[in-house]
Amino acid sequence: MVFNRRSFIKSALGGIAIPTFYPLSSSFAQSLDEEWKTYQIKTEINIEGKEHSIQGWLPLTLTQNTDYFRTLAINYSGNTDKIAIIQTPHNDLRMISANWDKNSGVGHFEVITTVATRDRKNTFEKFNPEIKLAKAESNYWTRGTQMLPTDGIVRQKVKEILSTIPASSNDLEKAKAIYNWVVDNTRREASTRGCGVGDVKYMLETNNMGGKCADINAIFVALARTAKIPSRDVYGIRIDNSARGYKSLGKSDDITKAQHCRAEFFANGYGWIAVDPADVRKVILEEPGNLTINDPKVTSIRDYLFGNWEMNWMAYNYGHDVNLRGSSLGAVGNIPFLMYPQAESNSGRFDSLDPANFKYQITSKRLS
Hints:
By secondary structure, the chain is α+β, with helices and mostly antiparallel strands. It has helices spanning 5-12, 135-140, 152-162, 171-185, 200-206, 213-226, 277-286, 296-304, 355-358; strands at 2-3, 16-17, 37-47, 54-59, 69-78, 82-87, 94-100, 107-117, 187-188, 210-211, 231-238, 253-254, 259-267, 271-275, 313-317, 342-345, 348-349, 360-366. The protein has 2 domains: 2-118 and 321-366, no CATH class; 135-310, C8orf32 fold.
């Protein structure tokens, strides 16, 4: 979907609503029960003194609505010369691309997204043999990628982990063993920039198991895929404070630096199951009291985050090894994941982890 400047300026006066690929009924927003919360998230870019042509990319929300997350509306406005909505063939990622021609003014663009969320709860008591993935879907979510290899040391590590549980274990039990291994053997590294990069092979080969959410949860996903358990990272951003008493697991208002990656796996008979080993390590590092892995506050969140997510968080995508379409850098400009605004000029790529100099801000507001 591409717009020229004239049609964009004309329609931007009232904002353009991007239709969801799985539209909601018109009465959905009015029929939300008390479990659902609604939020408005604004992402704003202001690129000053453009001496070069500029192209920017922003992540949009999930292409499909789920039982824990719904996109209600997406509106955008700005002085861009061209915009495009880009979606990957497998529907695991969509983004908005904006271009500005060379001039001396300020490049302004904003996206306002309205979403509804409700806490994601485990379904371990509700086994249904009819819940299965199609073979093509299973193959897609167990494939190896550049950053999520499923051979070499990753395969060796999976064999080691699964050798500690009965050979007859089902996918749920295998995933729990992998989850526990990741929690026990990784650490959150405060000095890691952003959310990390998720280079699983490097971390396992060097035994440097420190990082942040995109590193720690990537290890879970790669190990699970290698065990033939469909799994994926889910990239997003925190949009509200935690109601569970963990200051480190929430953010509201200015959420410019609140990006957070989660993970999920598919178990036959249960469906997609939420996990987040990275947030267990975040609690250990960042909650007051010098917590250890055996502290009750840690064991509580460890149990909770195998099967549950508190949905003070907005989901962007499942994309890995992302191509920023139209980038002058070509394949060299591919990124591990799209969770931060991206932009480049003729002089190179902007630093997406430096919003003060990149000039972008993300804010969140609770509506109901």
